[in-house]
Amino acid sequence: MGLFNRKQRLSLITFAVFYFSLFFFCRSNSARDPGSFFFQPREGYRPSYTLQRIHESLNFLSRFNQTAAPSELSAHRNDPSVQHADICIGIVTVKRPLQQKIETTVASIVDNLSQAQRSTLAIHVLFAQTTPSTHPSYTQPWVSNALDRALTYDHFNDTDISYLRRLERSKKFFAEKSLIDYRLSLQSCLDYTDAPYFLMLEDDVVAQRSWYLTTRQAIDRIETWQKRSLLSDWLYLRLFYTEKFLGWNAEHWREYFAWSLLVVVAVASLALSTRRVTRSTHDLLSNSFLLVLCFLCVPLLILLYFASGRVTVQQPMKPGIHFMNRHGCCSQALLFPRDQISRVMTYLQKMEDQSKPKPVDTTLERFANEFEIDRLAISPPQMQHIGAASYKEDEKKWRKGEYPVQGAHGVWSMQFETAYESVSADGVVVDTLWP
Ligand SMILES: *[C@@H]1O[C@H](CO)[C@@H](O)[C@H](O)[C@H]1NC(C)=O
Known about the structure:
It comes from Aspergillus avenaceus. InterPro entries: PGAP4. One of its GO terms (molecular function) is glycosyltransferase activity. One of its GO terms (cellular component) is Golgi membrane. The protein is of the alpha/beta class. α1 (6-29) runs parallel beside α11 and α8 packs antiparallel against α13. The protein has helices spanning 6-29, 41-44, 49-61, 102-110, 115-118, 141-146, 161-169, 174-192, 211-227, 253-277, 287-307, 310-314, 338-352, 360-371, 395-399, 414-419; strands at 87-93, 121-127, 149-151, 197-202, 205-207, 234-238, 320-323, 333-337, 374-379, 383-385, 433-434. It has two domains: 49-69 and 76-246 and 321-419, Spore Coat Polysaccharide Biosynthesis Protein SpsA, Chain A (Alpha-Beta Complex), CATH 3.90.550.10; 248-308. Helices cover 45% and strands 12% of the residues. The chain contains 16 helices and eleven strands. The structure holds 2-acetamido-2-deoxy-beta-D-glucopyranose (NAG). The site of 2-acetamido-2-deoxy-beta-D-glucopyranose has 7 residues, from α3. 2-acetamido-2-deoxy-beta-D-glucopyranose binds at residues 58, 61-62, 65, 103, 140, 142.
């Protein structure tokens, strides 16, 4: 340290103390950011709001769960062949190895709705088992009381049950079967409702309390933007996403590098000009001190910035509606405008017949990329993935995990857990369109 005078040594020690405090602050501040170096799964995947929602919605559904449910609770259904609705909700459900979550999904969709609001929804659930009675929920009383349509393969004319049975037997054909099921679910909404929007949910999501109002508001906004030509063709509005894929992106390394360089250059020039202008800083800002400043202190700060994770430091998902043409994952909750549906169905059918079909989310992204259609996402997410284990995962994976909510092991939204703590029943304001 003979290199430095007393003033410089003091500055470096101050920096070290400051840096250490900052480091520990960032470490705890980024514990929940999956894109951060400081991510701690135990913190990041801890469910809180989700547990509340599961609990309260199941409580609500249990009132439907009797053979004679009170009539004011029952689904709006006077059985015309085409039901009038604003949103048709299509859910495909299969039997899961540990626990069924479809109850929670349906319950959390309806539990805070008025009768008038409920009557604007058509809820169609496809029990996608060739023998539906093997699905533990199929015979429960709430199914006929809370759903507008409980579907099985028998409801569709053109399904080949023996072929589906073959797909069902082997997990190798999981993707193909999931494409067929998704298409049939869309088909039901298309044929039996006049709804202008289709909300396709997986059977293991939970909705936030005021998802209905927020989503209606978002739809209104989108329609306004379309009228004003601020928005053209869009494929879907995403009601669930995970922050996992929104972090720093290797493709953008040049941009990150350039910014970092710019910061170093800026600090260096600031220090040099200060030294020239202010005589009294001469003994502090010596050449060797500047070297340490620019090539050690500043890079350390930049490193900390990146280590903290993009979602934490840049907060890219401000409340509102965002374009999400890339890095949107997965297909847990997507709202489609009706006029896209026939195109989507044709594409799904084409992909089913390919030798190696991809799962639904990949197929939809391919479709949108091929036809260059925008995809939107609403922030904060309206749904959380509570992740029922599926037979396509290996057993080891779904047996482990410290939280009762299984989705809490990857496909998970951190924002969902904190976003609704202080939100009033009117929902979140969604009148901003983010690039
Ligand atoms: C509905 O009732 C059945 C028994 O009739 C029970 O097994 C099931 O857990 C109940 N489900 C809910 C959501 O209350």
